[in-house]
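DATA SHEET
Item: assembly model
Revision: 1
Owner: S.N.
Input lines:
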Amino acid sequence: MKMSAAYPFLKEDLNLIEKKLYETVQANHPVLREASTHLLKAGGKRIRPVFVLLSSKFGNNDHEHVNDVAVSLELIHMATLVHDDVIDDAEVRRGKETVKSKWDNRTAMYTGDYIFARALETLSGLTHPKIHQILSNIIVEVCLGEIEQIKDKFNLGQNFRTYLRRIRRKTALLIAVSCQLGAIAGGASEKIEKALYRYGYYVGMSYQIIDDILDFTSTEKELGKPAGSDLMQGNITLPVLYALKDEAFKKRLEKCLIHEQIIDMEQMKEIIHDIKHSEGIAYSYHISDRYLQKALKELEQLPDNQAKKTLKEIGKSIGKRKF
Amino acid sequence: MILLNSFNATIEDLKKQIKNKIDHPYLKQFIHSPSISDDKLFFLHTIASLSGKPEKKMNQYILATMLIQIALDTHETVPNKTSSEDDYDLQKNQQLTVLAGDLYSGLYYDHLARVHDVGMIIHLAGAIKEINENKMILYHEDIYSIDHLLDVIKNIESLLLQKFASFLGITQLNHILTDWLLLNRLCHELTLLKSEHRNLLFHLLTKHGQTKQSKHHIIRLVDNMISRTILRLEQDIKDLPQGIRHIQKKLFNRLHQSFNNHEMILEEG
């Protein structure tokens, strides 16, 4: 089942959010306007707005502000992606040319900064200091996480804890905060807000681990990039970490990554093949599932409603997703 | 003299606070420490002092504003062409420069969110938005005259400070700081021109000149702009409204330092 099939009742809200996303980035300068809407047009799961909306259903649902939070979070995520494509020198995202590829790095930098500013301006109606403290803290954490990721590249000496800390900052926190802010903007109780934060956090961890598995197990067509790309870029993910417990494998990988960017591609293909068929994949699924179970357990504290049912379905679909 | 010393000490203290805030051991290994504009700090502090609001609060505002400035300046240094994969250190530098700028932007938001100042957060975000609109105009060369070019540069250089001033209700210095920061930029561009760099300003001035102009003509043109801006600034400082006339001397002293620098540039040329 496609994840979006789990929440048809959000369609109207999501359409409103989509419309507001477009309206918000209508810059005066034509290139800035085009570049800012470029990534929006490529679509995307809008998973953060979905979590905001669902979490808001546990409160008295102040509709206007809930949507503002959802729009702002998605814009912050988009601004990050536009800059990430400069960092990764990426040509394609979501099947479309990246901003940096269609224009250039400079345009991408200005566009990301512009979108970030618009994301903050969208929150002008929200005077609740806690919302801004949470969001601003997460922006800093995500940046620090990305810096850590660069620092950890090609570092075969890292451990599980380093990996988990990295994916926490890279993915889990923003999803956790999407749930938390949705709950706050919707007027939910503190107990519910905390449970939703934890749900989002565990789901985010599970989601990223699955992402890291799929990097090895999916096809190039499904991924939109060659399988094993993360490892080729030096990112040591959970399936690799598991495989590294085998000293012989570790030596092979060390030999393959002769010097950071200089990779023996023939050997690398073999290594990727071996990881794909290793126990590391099953182990990673196991860890992902453990996070998922924790997420589902958090939902038990919440009152029964359609949003709870949907959050449960989303969680389960994350565990089953193929790409 | 005591006042001037105390003023300088405050500026130095602010600089130290900014440096502490952006300090990151790993970034430090790979990217240059961002420069902190003395003139921008000078104006922010002067405006904050004129507002009569509590110093602690004002210093928080100054810190946040400077963090944005540093973030934008950092992103300005991201090379337009991605470094070759072979040059790993250069590539890393480029990647971390993008992230450093993002981090500094995040820190501005975080800093103001901690002191619950939503109003200032939104106000400064408006400046970031407009500055990037203006940067796109300049970068994509959507300039229709030399005056337009100068206006765009003024906006890029001073919108953040103007927004800071308008938030505090102290707008009497806006035209002075705008010209002042334009003057800085022009002096910088002139130095680049003289050191044989074919920069964007040179290109745009050539494009919008009435006839095809040589480098020598462009240098003269920029030089005249600088002289006119200095004269305008002197007059504006003289004409400061009664309520803030007490800062005249401070502004003149600083202006003459810049003027002397400019004289030096001319002589070198």
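QC remark: Strands of chain A lie at 92-93, 96-97, 257-259, 262-263.
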